[in-house]
């Protein structure tokens, strides 16, 4: 990750993109900008297009309309796969490590765009791998087989592999799923540090709306493939937006002590007011 915070030239901008599976357009006219040093949370119900939008930004699923350009003017469609992998990395939900691979080996795999096709030199590789292991708290587990780790530890190894890739843009699809509370908070701390200290631009899908409010500079709300709100957490995480988007009453309160946003979906078991 870059050492100079808030580099001006590393963002990515998607403008009015459509993304389709076959003839089925599932993301429509979506615009999103990820900026250096900023965390953008993508929220919305299941199936609203969050994963598909992230995949489109990494060209794993190319848009069928609209444009995706980097801040230096490069067009996503015109770049080689290797060039893209040097700019942007995606931690997706589906992951499985090949048998017998150690933590370090999986993290080293993240260096692939920096090596030549024949496995050539990568002078910055060892330092990047060491830093990724450190940031994710995995240095002591580096020689363990990934398959011998808990689900939460393995999740951190995949994140470390993305960090070793050393891109200025990082996309995370539900990185806290399956993690216990401590590691959820630690992963989000890492995300915040990457933005604040290393100038990384982060796009992260989160289901926990309070976590989204706490970690993100901007929040993007998706509903049925469309971006229906985009702005500061306070602007987007309103009772009206969330109740409409999720189809259930959602109360929102501001903690008077620290100004934090708290949300709660209201069911029969918890129908007292949120204060
Ligand atoms: P989210 O991440 O918000 O849960 P997704 O991006 O996974 O939403 O899905 C958006 C829409 O695209 C959904 O209607 C989903 O059923 C559909 N979809 C996702 N993956 C595929 C696929 N591989 N083939 C066809 N449709 C898909």
Could you tell me how far the N terminus lies from the C terminus, measured between alpha carbons in angstroms? Answer: 40 Å
Q: Any idea how many domains?
A: 2
How would a crystallographer describe the biggest sheet?
6 strands, mixed
Report the average pLDDT across residues.
91
The third-level CATH topology of the largest domain is Rossmann fold
Give the number of DSSP strands. 11
Percent strand equals 15-25%
Based on the coordinates given, report the CATH architecture of the largest domain. Answer: 3-Layer(aba) Sandwich
Roughly how much helix do the residues carry, as a percent range? Answer: 25-40%
Top CATH class of the largest domain: Alpha Beta
Which secondary-structure class do the elements indicate? alpha/beta
Supply the number of helical segments: 9
Q: Provide the low-confidence segments as ranges.
A: none
For the largest beta sheet, what order do the strands appear in spatially?
A: 5-6-7-3-8-9
Bound molecules: adenosine-5'-diphosphate
Query: Topology as H/E string?
Result: EEEHEHEHHHEHEHEEHHEE
Calculate Rg over CA atoms: 19 Å
Shape: globular
Could you give me the name of the CATH homologous superfamily of the largest domain?
A: P-loop containing nucleotide triphosphate hydrolases
Task: Describe this protein's structure.
The structure is a single chain. The chain contains nine helices and eleven strands. Helix content is 31%, strand content 25%. It starts with 11 loop residues before the first strand and ends in a 10-residue tail after the last strand. With 275 residues, the protein is an alpha/beta fold. A six-stranded mixed beta sheet has the order 5-6-7-3-8-9, sandwiched between helices. A three-stranded antiparallel beta sheet has the order 2-1-4, covered by helices on one side. It folds into two domains: 11-237, 3-Layer(aba) Sandwich (Rossmann fold), CATH 3.40.50; 238-275, no CATH class. α3 packs parallel to α5 (151-164) and α4 runs antiparallel to α5 (151-164). The chain has helices at 50-57, 81-87, 103-109, 125-135, 151-164, 181-198, 209-215, 233-236, 239-246; strands at 12-21, 24-34, 39-43, 65-70, 88-91, 169-173, 201-205, 218-223, 226-231, 250-254, 261-265. Bound molecules: adenosine-5'-diphosphate. Adenosine-5'-diphosphate is lined by residues 21, 26, 44, 46-52.
